[in-house]
Structures are given as C-alpha cells and as structure tokens.
Specification:
mainly alpha; about 270 residues; Serine Threonine Protein Phosphatase 5, Tetratricopeptide repeat; elongated; 12 helices
C-alpha cells in the first residue's frame, strides 16, 4: 500500500473497515516491538535488544494496517521511525502512523503524527495528505449544535489551510465540500442560540445571532429561517418597518419557501403586511 492508494473521503465515518483478525505472527511481533519501546530500560543488562531490518518492520506494519488492526499498525509504524530514524522508510512511516491512528479513531494521536511529519518534512510531496489527515481528524470530532463548537472551528481552520496551501491537490475538492458543511453546522449553532433567546423573549440578543447567520453564513441552508426569525423578532419588539424590510429580503431570495409563507402570515397578523 502506498500513500496514493489511500482514498480521499467525503463524509465522516466513511472509512471502510478491514478484516479485524491479524495473524498470530503479527500480533506477537507487535507485542515484542511495543514491549521493547516501553521496557527497554527495564530489561536486564545481559538481555540483548533484538532489532529488525527496516524493510521487514515496515512490511509488517503495512500488512497489519491492511488486516484492519489500525492501532497495532500505528504502533508498528512508530517503531519503524524509532529503530531507523534516518532511513527513507522512517519518513513514510511517520505519515502512515498518522493515517493508522486516524483509522483507529484516535484523532489526537493522528493529528500529532501528521503535525510531526509536517514539522520535519514541510516541503515533502505528501504534505497535502498530512494536512488532510489533520483536517479529517478534527472534522470527525464535530459535535452536534447543542455542544461547544471549538472542534468545529478547528476543523474549519484546518480545511481552509489545506485549500489555501494546496488548492490543486487531490484533497482540495473534498476539503471545499467539507468547508461548506462546517459553515452550515456553525450557522445552525448560531440559529439554535438565537431560538433559545427568542423562547426567553430576549429579542435583541436573538437578532444578534440571526444577523450573524445572514451576514457570515448567507450561502448556508439556514439563511431563510434566519430572515424569518428577524421578522418575528422585530415584530415582537414593535418595530414593524424593520420586520417588513427583512420580509422583503426573504421574499426576494426565497419566494417559494415555507419561511416566506410564515413571514407573510405573521406580518399580516400583526398588521404589518
């Protein structure tokens, strides 16, 4: 398996899981190498440390990955670098370790591995893939709109960084799609907070959130509702001229939507139609 064999993905959770049984040989090999990494200093002085040649170790790690043992594969790729830090295989192993941690859904470790690769090899031809691993690792941790959106912001920044640095890479198109999805998610968060304020009749605070959707996320799926909510809020505040203005914008941009119909009925009910 080479880096070019690893497919770009378009949705969180779309990674195809491989077979989950590894051979006894690979399991024992990993147990040995991981154990050496942890216990080398604790071993008796007369106990020899047994190293593997780099190609054999890398092949074992690759086969472990292909067998679906992602966590094991990550540890074995780490061992390639530890035992052979100056080989060309070590550079490849760093990035494959990041992918393996990502496949195991150990996203912080995946980010750290990919960032380490970039810090050591910033101009490498596989740098776009390292940025892609980082972006995906943040993206797949995005929580629903009822929770804190710090990770969502980090995902957006990582996706934008990938597109900015490598706009023609094979990963850029997927990153652009995900940027749209992340923006839609963030708009949904603003709208959710605005509705919370509205339920508590904090209309001015609600308009601040709705306006953020209209101004910052105007190409998302939430804009029409945000315009309707502005009509609702200004009517509640007793400012019908502002309500009519937002209703007109809603009608001009979303004339057949349910939100325009609701805004029209609401305005009529308040005598502002």
């Amino acid at each position: 398996m080479t880096l070019s064999d690893l497919p770009a993905r378009s949705e969180p959770g779309a990674l195809r899981r491989g077979r989950m049984l590894a051979s006894a040989l690979l399991i024992l090999s990993l147990a040995f190498t991981a154990g050496c990494a942890r216990n080398r200093d604790k071993a008796p002085k007369d106990q020899a440390y047994i190293a593997r040649d780099v190609e054999t170790l890398y092949t074992l790690a690759r086969d472990t990955l292909e067998d679906g043992q992602y966590r094991m594969a990550a540890l074995m790729f780490d061992e390639v670098e530890r035992q052979h830090p100056y080989s060309v295989w070590a550079r490849r192993a760093q990035l494959m370790s990041g992918f393996s941690y990502y496949a195991a859904r150990q996203y912080p470790q995946a980010i750290m591995s990919a960032q380490r690769f970039l810090s050591l090899h910033p101009g490498n031809k596989d740098a776009p893939y390292a940025y892609y691993i980082i972006a995906l690792s943040y993206y797949e941790q995005i929580a629903d709109v009822s929770r804190d959106q710090k990770i969502t912001q980090q995902a957006l920044q990582a996706l934008q960084e990938l597109v900015r640095r490598y706009p023609e890479s094979r990963y850029a198109a997927d990153a652009r799609l995900k940027i749209d999805l992340v923006n839609d998610h963030l708009a949904g968060k603003e709208l959710d907070i605005g509705r919370f304020y509205a339920r508590n009749r904090q209309w001015i605070a609600a308009t601040v959130r709705y306006r953020a959707v209209i101004d910052q996320y105007q190409t998302t799926s939430h804009t029409a509702e945000a315009l309707y909510r502005m009509v609702e809020a200004y009517l509640a505040l007793g400012i019908p001229e502002e309500a009519r203005r937002y209703a007109a914008v809603l009608g001009a941009n979303y004339p057949g939507s349910k939100w325009y119909d609701r805004a029209y009925r609401l305005a009529r009910a308040h005598g502002a139609g």
